[in-house]
Amino acid sequence: MSTSFPSQPVDDLKLSRREICRAGVAAAFAGPLLSLCHADRPVAAQDGGTGTATPSKTDTSSPVEVKPVEPRNLLDPKEFPKGWRFFTEEKDAQLAATWQMVTDDPKQPYLRCTGKPFGYLRTIEIFADYEFGLQWRYPTDLAGNSGILLHTADEDRIWPNSIQVQLHRPQTGSVFPSGDAKSDNRIEKKDRDLPRDLNVWNECHIVCRAGRISVEINGKPLGEVTGCMPASGAIALQSEGAEVHFQKFWLKPLSKPEQPTE
What we know:
single chain; mainly beta; 2 domains
């Protein structure tokens, strides 16, 4: 491969060493000029060379720390009934007559529901895509009746549009639409051994995401209900004839599932 050169000698060009490099003259004088062009810095060793490589600059900035979402306390015993409201069709009924925060043991306060009148205690805030958990127990009635109403929406009535998690023996853990709500399927349970004895706390863990609801009672997965409509709403607790206690409410928001790309 031939290379064209200027007609005058290199000395007459009156160019600086760096300009010689930039002009491309180094192509013809690669050996001698390479050391001139890089005289102000070491040459990296290659193929067994003895030069000293200049360390490359590295990004020393700290990575952005993504903190996990922590569960939040959905019911603060010190501020109850803040964030909640009671609905019943009985006129002049007062929230405090049905729902009371019991703080005899400051280390383990709980919410007491007398069961009368029929109605429900619901969050003012609306939720979608979340994990939710609580504990409940019946103090005196083995056939106690109550439930958790998820995605409670539209007008308040007995009973509202919602997806119910049944806490009534022996159907504890059944999941089904209530009011005008809809779902693709139901969970139907008839396990008398699933709920624990009187005055023993039961645990409920629920995951709601994109119209899907999965339920776990006392560590036992019970299944999943899909196609839930509505897919968001308030969370409510039923007052349905029996005294029932609740405690340790928590909720953890979930990120929305990624949509598939076309």
